[in-house]
Write a structure and sequence with these properties.
By secondary structure, this protein is of the alpha/beta class. Helix content is about 45%, strand content about 15%. The radius of gyration is 25 Å and the shape is globular. It folds into four domains: about 100 residues, Glutaredoxin, CATH 3.40.30.10; about 200 residues, Rossmann fold (3-Layer(aba) Sandwich), CATH 3.40.50; about 90 residues, Ubiquitin-like (UB roll) (Roll), CATH 3.10.20; about 100 residues, NADH-ubiquinone oxidoreductase 51kDa subunit, iron-sulphur binding domain (de novo design (two linked rop proteins)).
């Protein structure tokens, strides 16, 4: 091992430094809590610590997402020899009280406590999010203290690239970006490719409405992403990596840039890693917010400075990718699983979840629920368990009607199928997809044709325009949905809508167009009566259309 890096020494020093404090205050510094005033709460707590002269006894850490974003800002108090105490809805005034009473005097504020035995936390199984709310994302030492970079060190120093690929294959890890393609198979394809240059890419271009899983991972555990990407590079023979992040994620970009600098300083990136001939470097590429750049060929075009539009496959990126060289793209969450799999073993990971969908899945739980936020659950958990137990059910006495998974590419699952285990195959059978992990819950008041129109508007706006079926088809489908929702639809409107769905799905160039009809098709399948209820006689539809045209011209 290189004299420039000693992970054991760094880990021991950081753990010893942390153990000198009797009490640690963990303040959520993730985007969701920051938008709710977490910085003011944190400043208030720090002010009291300073005023009371407690700096040698109390450590304050701005940490990552603790999960229940609907109750943020969240603050956890950890005292040596005692159970952790979690506080919710911590505004500036409450933060100061927590510091004055609990931190300084040891008196808990029970009226602001949130039980860690709450089903929201108890029903989760954290793998990717194991460091969230525990480490300081701005300090590499904090990551190393919890075993960070150990997997990379052992792989590079003690294992062959083929052995690393074998571990990933035996774990059964599937791509967490949506398609669920076996990660180990993709790694093996790149490893077999013959070229003097190969590239590995982390896809952080998360664009689904309501989704923020990858953003949170990049913000709150950036070194985990780097370590996963480095393991992929070692296994496949790549020397250069890229992390593609959308510009709307400035905190993620800033923390990843800092993480890269720290990793280079500690000789965890660059040449001769751990005293071997393995060399790996990482750069960040910032996208301009085009949803289509989540598609791998469009993403690569954007990295190369070209317009982000997809191209036909084959050849696949592992054959011909960046600048004509073999390249591999993995979703951020996929890569974030790898360090833990390498540390704990493929059998452990394969023992979680289901046979065909091993492991866990991170979801951004949103919509009409009592508890919303970021969750990580084992594959195979039912939608009912997520909604009613983790999410606390629909508030206001309303009934749970449907859940939308997979973003604009997914579908709406009705409550009658809420008992179905959530995994890749079951969601596909229901007319939806896993997607990157957005999960939006809807109550009885939601009109499903309106939901379909919303997602179709999104797909229409985000179409790159390269192919006619997607460019014109999504526009026409949105127009038809407009007609139905605005009282201008006839039975022929529904027929034409269904026909267009088939054309766009079968003839579009890339995944955006091919999956754009899914919200329409799934709502037509499960909630057709709601569409039929909007239909009016042809004469009334004509009159409504003329009235709308007159209003627009005025």
């Amino acid at each position: 091992m290189s004299k420039d890096v000693d992970l054991f020494d760094l880990r021991q020093k950081e753990r010893e430094a942390q153990s000198t404090y009797r009490r640690t205050v963990l303040c959520c510094g993730s985007t969701a809590c920051l938008s709710s005033g977490a910085q003011a709460s944190q400043d208030a707590i720090q002010a009291v610590i300073t005023e009371r002269g407690l700096e040698q006894d109390v450590r304050l850490v701005a940490t990552g997402c603790m999960g229940m974003c609907s109750r943020g800002p969240l603050v956890k108090i950890r005292t040596r020899g005692e159970e952790d105490v979690l506080y919710a809805d911590v505004d500036e005034a409450v933060g100061r009280r927590i510091a004055e009473e609990h931190v300084a005097e040891g008196r808990r504020l029970e009226e602001h406590e949130l039980s860690l035995e709450h089903p929201f936390f108890a029903r989760q199984e954290r793998v990717v999010l194991e460091n969230m709310g525990e480490i300081d994302p701005n300090r590499i030492e904090s990551y190393i203290a919890r075993g960070g970079y150990t997997a990379l060190q052992e792989a590079v120093s003690e294992q062959t690239p083929e052995a690393v690929i074998d571990v990933v294959q035996r774990s059964g890890l599937r791509g967490r970006g949506g398609g669920g393609y076996p990660a180990g198979t993709k790694w093996a394809l790149l490893a077999r490719a013959q070229s003097d240059q190969k590239f590995v890419i982390a896809n952080g271009d998360e664009g689904d409405p309501g989704a923020y899983m990858d953003r949170t991972i990049m913000e709150d555990d950036p070194h985990r992403v780097l370590e996963g990407l480095a393991l992929a590079a070692y296994a496949t023979g790549a020397k250069q990596g890229y992390i593609y992040v959308r510009a709307e994620y400035p905190v993620a970009v800033r923390r990843l840039e800092q993480a890269i600098r720290q990793a280079k300083r500690h000789k965890l990136l660059g040449k001769n890693l751990f005293g071997t001939d393995f060399e790996f470097n990482v750069e960040i590429r910032i996208g301009a917010g085009a949803f289509v750049c989540g598609e791998e060929t469009a993403l690569m075009a954007s990295i190369m400075g070209q317009r982000g539009t997809p191209v036909l496959r084959p050849p696949y990126p592992t054959e011909r990718g960046l600048w004509g060289h073999p390249s591999m793209i993995n979703n951020v969450e996929t890569l974030a699983n790898v360090p833990t799999i390498m540390r704990r073993g493929p059998e452990w990971f394969a023992g979680i979840g289901t046979e065909n969908s091993p492991g866990t899945k991170v979801f951004a739980l949103a919509g009409k629920l009592l508890n919303t936020g970021l969750i990580e659950v084992p594959m195979g958990i039912t939608l009912h368990e997520i909604v009613e137990e983790i999410g606390g059910g629909v508030p206001g006495g309303k009934a749970f009607k449907a859940a939308q998974t997979g973003g604009p590419s997914g579908g709406c699952i009705p409550v009658k199928h809420a008992g179905t285990p959530v995994d890749y195959d079951n969601l596909m059978a229901l007319g939806s997809i896993m997607g990157s992990g957005g999960l939006i819950v809807m109550d009885e008041d939601v009109k499903m044709p309106e939901v379909a129109r919303y997602f179709m508007r999104f797909c229409m706006d985000e179409s790159c325009g390269k192919c006619l079926p997607c460019r014109a088809g999504t526009f026409e489908m949105h127009q038809l949905l407009d007609d139905l929702c605005e009282g201008r639809g006839t039975p022929a409107t529904i027929e034409r809508l269904e026909a267009l769905c088939d054309v766009v799905r079968s003839d579009s160039l890339c995944g955006l167009g091919q999956t754009a009809p899914n919200p329409v098709l799934s709502t037509l399948h499960y909630f057709r009566s709601e569409y039929e209820a909007l239909v009016v006689p042809p004469q009334a539809a004509t009159e409504a259309t003329l009235a709308a045209m007159s209003e627009r011209s005025a």
